[in-house]
Each structure stands twice: as C-alpha cells, then as structure tokens.
Amino acid sequence: MRKLTTPFIVLSAGMLLAAPWIINAAPYESTMGLVQKVFYFHFPSAILFLVAAIVCGVHSARFLFFKNQRADGWAVAAAELGLVFGAITLVTGPLWARKAWGVWWVWDPRLTMSLVLWMIFAAYLMLRQYGGPGSDRLGAGMALFGMANVPFIYVSVNVWRTLHPQTSVVPTLPTDMGIPLWFCFAAFTMMFIALLNVRADLEHKRARLEALYLAEDEA
Amino acid sequence: MRLLRVCTVLIVLLAAPALVPGLAPQVLANGDQPQPPKEFVPVDEVPPGEQIPAINLVAAAYGFVWLVMLGYVWTIARRLGTVEAELASLETRKR
User: Fold this and answer.
1) Where are the domains positioned within chain A?
2) What pTM was estimated for this model as a whole?
3) What is the per-residue pLDDT across B40-63, written as a single tens digit (0 to 9) for each?
C-alpha cells in the first residue's frame, strides 16, 4: 500500500486540477444555479469526513479492547484526516448555503451534528497532544462516541425537517451531474487513502522513536 | 465553592441565548418552512435574478480545498522528515 501513496497523491492532485473543466461541463441545477457546483467538492469531503470517524472509531476499538498498539496510530491518523475533511465540509457548505438559503449557517440537525463531530475530532487531537499518560485510552473512548454520531448525521436530513438536500439526491442524479460527482469523489478518496497511509506511518515511526528513547534510558 | 461559581457562570452563559430576546434561534413553524429538495433537476441556463455572484463562492470553495490539501501535505512531509531524521540519528548512535 505504501508504494501506492505517491501515485495516489499525484493522480488525485491531477484529477482535482482537471475537475473545474469537468464540473463546468455539468448542467446547472434548476433552483440553485451555478452555486450548486460547490456540491462536487462538498459531498466527497462530507462522506470522507464520516468515513474518517468510522476508521478512527474502529481502530480505537481495536486498541481499547485488543490492546493493538498499531491500531492507535491508525486512529490518530484518521482523526487528523477527519479534522481536515471536516473543515472542508464545514467551509464549503456555508459558501453554498449563503447563495442557496440566503444565510451562511442554520442550526439544523445535520449541520449541528457535523459541527459536533468536528469538535470531537479537535478535542481528541488536543487530548492526544496535551493529555499526558493515559490519554490514548481516554481518546479511544472519545473516538467511539464520535463514530456513534455518524449514522445520526447521515439519516438526519430524512428524519428531521431541514433545508439541507436529502440523501435521495445522489442516487437520483442525472448522468451528466453524476460523472463530475464520481470523478471528484474518486480524486478525494485517493487523496484520503494516500494521506491516511502517510499519516499512520508517521505515527508508527513516532511510536518506534519513543520506544528507542525508553530503551536508551533503561540501558 | 470555586467549582460551584464556575458551574453557575457556565449555566448562565449557556442559558443566555434562550433568555435574552433576539439571541434565541429563530424557530419557524412547520408550515412556514420550505420543503428540502428531494432530487436535483438539471437545466441548461443559469436561472435569472442571481443576486449574489455565485462564481465567487464556487471559486472560494475550490480555492479552500486546494489550500487545505497543500497545507496538510506540507505539514505531514515536514513532520515525517523531522521524525525520520531523529530516528536515523538515534539508530546510528545505538550502533
């Protein structure tokens, strides 16, 4: 997988460079017009934001219940990517909303729960950075709460009244809107996988470095 | 006692938006709220009467994606470089 990291980053960067031309060729949406094109960046980053929460939660559970130290490295990497993709989601969303809804933000369930999940990631990373001994186990528990939030975020637009487009939008997309969406989704996903690998590698190397320092102190 | 004071201040701060008129979130009655879109309908032309230039918002969204991605790749590369250099020097010292 490590060998694929550089090609993935280069290919996804190339695809993101080409994306404006492909998105430009897509038709306008009837009620929102040009601003709806933010959707092609917003949707992939939002999905990967939720995927990051699941990856972080699953690896945290492996660390917490099976004492798998390497899983902790993957959890930290996923949390950081969750923060990055969450920031993209939470910035591109209001840019779209300003035009489509007339406001930057509304406190509806989808938006509020997404912000809460982003704050859980931020709190998790701050805890890991400054929490001291035991913060790894405490952080793992916190990541499980973050993962539990994911299904609620996903179904919130179908269950509660909101202005946010429902989950039925993507399966019913016409082909000429679907092509740019899945093109951008592939680019974002490749970037996500590559960055997750590199970031987890960094965390594993840090753990090795710490172990070497400890061994040196004991000797 | 100090904890009690801190808790009281926190409760007052959290309750303030609900107590002060104008700060409370505007709740629309169910009948007033527009329906959320269930599907996107494509058209060939931009609808007339676009008040806010949407191109600025779309460009800002695209620019932000690039800014965040490049910034993040740069921070990972920098941190990885530091850790790898430290690891290499420690392993050389051990030998």
Assistant:
1) 2-19+36-218
2) 0.83
3) 888 776 666 555 678 889 999 999
Half-sphere exposure of A217 (CA within 13 A, CB side): 6
CA end-to-end span of chain B: 58
Distance CA A106, CA A179 (A): 30
Q: In this complex, do A30 and B43 lie within 8 Å of one another by their Cβ atoms?
A: yes
How does pLDDT run across A101-156, given as a tens digit for each residue?
Answer: 889 999 999 999 999 999 999 999 999 999 988 899 999 999 999 999 999 999 99
Which chain B residue shows the shortest CA-CA distance from A92?
B61
Chain B residue whose CA is closest to A163: B36
* CA nearest to A78, candidates A100, A52, A104: A52
Nearest CA in chain B to A107: B25
Give the whole-angstrom CA distance, residue A73 versus residue A89. 24
ipTM score here?
A: 0.90
* Binary contact (B87, A208; C-beta < 8 A): yes
Residue type, A41: F
Overall size of chain A counted in residues: 219
B23 secondary structure, DSSP code: T
Largest CA distance in chain B: 76
Backbone angles phi, psi at A204, to 5 degrees: -70, -35
Sign of CA dihedral A171, A174, A177, A178: positive
- B→A contacts (Cβ < 8 Å), by residue, are 25, 30, 33-34, 36-47, 50, 52, 54-55, 57-58, 60-62, 64-66, 68-69, 72-73, 76, 79-80, 83-84, 86-87, 90-91, 94
Gap between the Cα atoms of A40 and A46, Å rounded: 11
The minimum CA-CA distance between B77 and chain A, rounded to whole Å, is 9
Task: Please tell me the class of the A2-19+36-218 domain.
Answer: mainly alpha
- Residues A28, B30: C-beta atoms closer than 8 Å: no
